[in-house]
Amino acid sequence: QVQLVESGGGVVQPGRSLRLSCAASGFTFSSYVMHWVRQAPGKGLEWVTLIWYDGSNKYYADSVKGRFTISRDNSKKTLYLQMNSLRAEDTAVYYCGRGISGSASAPLEYWGQGTLVTVSS
Amino acid sequence: QTVVTQEASFSVSPGGTVTLTCGLSSGSVSTSYYPSWYQQTPGQAPRTLIYNTNTRSSGVPDRFSGSILGNKAALTITGAQADDESDYYCMLYIRSGTWVFGGGTKLTVL
Q1: Which of A6, A71, A81, B80 could cross-link with B12 by S-S, CB 3.0 to 4.6 Å?
Q2: DSSP 3-state percent helix, strand, coil across chain A (nearest 5)
Q3: DSSP secondary structure of B52-81
Q4: Is B99–A50 a contact, with Cβ atoms under 8 angstroms apart?
Q5: Can you list the pairs that B24-33 forms with residues at least 24 positions away whose Cβ atoms lie under 8 Å?
Q6: Quick check: A114 and B45 CB within 8 A?
């Protein structure tokens, strides 16, 4: 069965960096687009970023463009989110998700359980 | 800035039918926006219900259905059950590679 397990969350000071990981299993990781979605405490879902199946194209929400970088290692079946210049408003549970196919127009089908990032001094 | 609109809240009686909608601040939603729907209960990860307008995700009962109604995407729940009480989010494909969620609808079953 499809499994996605996020890790790397924690408490970080404003302006610092953090890298999240998402370990995938149960499917051919290199064939699917992958997303990151976040949810601030008590708020709705916010789409953050997407990476093509082969890592050749990446797209970002305006709120994180220039600060966050998505990447993947298909040999390790792992997705990453490098978050730099963190702000208080980046505090959220971060979910990784698998798309329904390898296309950028592939919405999420499977979700991880999420990892909490708290940006606070 | 594209804004995806959803009803803030809705209520339905057990056994009843409810239709939640997903629109755009300007323009109409079509299948080209690849609308998808997600269900989330407090403290849990979202669950995918519908993608590509009307395709049910694996394991989703057929009382959940998706469609385009007028200028909006729609999620219809037929024969609502108590455990359908959740937050429901739609997501639209806005432009090359980028997606936007709606603000979510809190559904109460009572």
Answers
A1: B80
A2: 5, 50, 45
A3: TTTEEPTT--TTEEEEEETTEEEEEEES--
A4: yes
A5: B24/B71, B24/B92, B27/B71, B28/B70, B28/B71, B28/B72, B29/B68, B29/B71, B29/B72, B29/B73, B29/B92, B30/B68, B31/B68, B32/B93, B33/B73, B33/B92, B33/B93, B33/B94
A6: yes
With beta carbons less than 8 A apart as the criterion, state whether A17 and A83 touch: yes
Would you put residue A5 in left (φ > 0), alpha (ψ -120 to 50) or beta? Answer: beta
**What backbone phi and psi angles, to 5 degrees, belong to A90?**
-85, -5
Written as six digits, the tokens of B64 are: 């959940």
Q: Residue B49 is encoded by which pair of tokens?
A: 């219900």
* Residue type (1 letter), B42: P
Whether the predicted pLDDT of B101 surpasses 90: yes
The total number of residues written for chain A in this structure = 121
Contact B45 A95 (CB under 8 A): yes
| pLDDT, tens only, B42-97 | 999 999 999 999 999 999 999 999 999 999 999 999 999 999 999 999 999 998 88
Q: Which residues contact B44 (CB under 8 A, 6 or more apart)?
A: none
- pLDDT bracket for residue B30 (50, 70, 90): very high
